[in-house]
Amino acid sequence: MTDKLKKEIKEAFEIDSPVGKKQFLKDFRYPKLNKTDFILEQIFYIRKKTWLFSVLIMGFIFWFLHFYENSSTPNMNLWIISSLMPFLALIFTVELSRSSMFKMEEMEAGCLFGLSQIFLARMLIMGIWNGILLFIIALTANLYLPEGMIKIFLYLLAPYLLVNGLSFYFINNKRERGEIYSCAAIAVMVSICGMIMPRFLKRYSENIGTWVMSVVWITGLFMVLTQLRKMHKKLEEDRWNFA
Amino acid sequence: MSEGLDVIYDKIYKYCYYKMENKQIAEDITQETFLKYFAQNIKIENGRQMAYLYTIAKNLCTDYYRKGKGEERRAEWSENEEYLTEDFSKNLERKYVLRQAMKNLEEGQQEVLFLRYVNEISIKEIAAFMGISRFAVYRLEKAALSLLQQILRKEDFYD
User: Would an 8 Å CB–CB cutoff place B54 in contact with chain A?
Assistant: First the structure.
């Protein structure tokens, strides 16, 4: 009897389907993905060549560490590895600036997960990826070079942060399309500086390189943080303008 | 949310209709519930979404009555739904009697029966919505069913 009653309770409250449901759900803007799914989904939108180039840079560093002999210039091998980091930073910046490169900013900003969220998701993915690469490179370099882990991290991160900081500055202050070329120029310049610097610093104290790198590291970090904050603020403003 | 938004919409609509007894108001409140829910989605704990949706819907229904609109609407419903008494098919009569019998239960008992058997919500979700333990929901459900059966017996529902 109870089962029959339960069934009848259900039937007693059955009503026709609501008339406005279809239209409401069609027009309703709601997040169909949760944040984790959204971030994971963004991984597949990052171009294959981005992954490939960063792996190639890492592969080249491994090859270099394995086959290149120590030079007479102090820390020379570390300087060489360090001078490749700007290109890793360039890959990161280019990937983040894709929307503006292909003039898709306006369209992406109008989507539910707007440009600022896509930008943050890509930055998170690329940041984690580059972090892993840098860590592996540093661990491997530690096996071949006598400088020690802290110094290796300092030399790897300083040009990386400087290029990212300067690139973000150009992206934030761009007048017209072409910031990618500016970023590429910055990466090449920082890389060349990294190659020339040890020969120039050779005349001074042996530790001068570490001091220079420390200053670059702090400057780069400061620039990255301030420019990212500025960039995120700008994207948020754009989001509200589109809303 | 494990269920599709389409299914959840229907459940919330049914709940609002059960509270308001007017299709248009029920639909308006359902849509407002969704808008409010997604406006605050970030703060909601995982697994309590359905309970939160029902809470918003219930509060909106209560607000509607507080504003004094509810009684007019109920009267409007009574006029519109008179076909229930005119069309005396046995099935419709049984539904009507059952709905009237449910109204004799306490509000908590009515809600438990509605959520459990009409919207087929789990005891865990009902407990989260009502802010009581699962055991208390279970007891409330048993008591409500037993009382409903007694009322229906008096109404000769089982004849």
Answer: no
